C-alpha cells in the first residue's frame, strides 16, 4: 500500500455526516474516538491510498471531520466505517444549512454476536 499525494495536495473526500451531526463530539473533545476511517469493502492488494481530507456535507469551512488520513479513492454511495464513535452520536445530531441528519448503521464485530 503506497501513499500518494496528487500534485502535493491532499485529496478531498466528502461524506454525508459532519461536525453538525454525527461528529459533533469532535468540537468538544477532538480525541474522543479514533477518526481513522476504513472502507466497508474488500481492497485490492495494490490499491493506492491517498492522503485525504474528509469533509462533511454542509459547505461550511469548519465542517472538516479529518484533515489527514489515508484512504483509497471512494466511489459515490460507498460506505466507510469510523470505529467506537460512542453512544451520543445520534442524540447530539441536528440539521444544518438545509441538511438533515444522516441515516445511521450500527455494525458489531461478528465475535460479539
Automatic annotation (TrEMBL):
Record's signal peptide: none
Gene3D superfamilies on file: Lyase, Ornithine Decarboxylase, Chain A, domain 1
SUPFAM superfamilies: Alanine racemase C-terminal domain-like
The Orn/DAP/Arg decarboxylase 2 C-terminal domain, residue ranges: 5-86
Entry GO MF terms: ornithine decarboxylase activity
Domain of life: Eukaryota
Keyword entries, A-Z: Lyase, Pyridoxal phosphate
One annotated GO biological process: putrescine biosynthetic process from arginine, via ornithine
GO cellular component: cytoplasm
Protein known as: Ornithine decarboxylase 1-like
Taxonomic lineage: Eukaryota, Metazoa, Echinodermata, Eleutherozoa, Asterozoa
Amino acid at each position: 500500500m503506497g501513499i500518494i499525494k496528487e500534485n502535493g495536495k491532499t485529496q478531498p473526500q466528502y461524506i454525508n455526516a459532519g461536525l453538525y451531526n454525527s461528529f459533533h463530539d469532535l468540537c468538544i473533545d477532538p480525541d474522543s474516538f479514533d477518526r481513522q476511517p476504513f472502507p466497508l469493502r474488500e481492497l485490492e492488494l495494490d490499491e493506492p491510498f491517498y492522503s485525504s481530507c474528509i469533509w462533511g456535507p454542509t459547505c461550511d469551512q469548519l465542517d472538516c471531520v479529518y484533515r489527514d488520513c489515508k484512504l483509497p479513492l471512494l466511489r459515490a454511495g460507498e460506505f466507510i466505517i469510523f470505529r467506537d464513535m460512542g453512544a451520543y452520536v445520534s442524540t447530539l445530531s441536528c440539521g444544518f444549512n438545509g441538511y438533515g441528519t444522516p441515516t445511521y448503521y450500527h455494525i458489531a464485530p461478528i465475535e460479539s454476536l
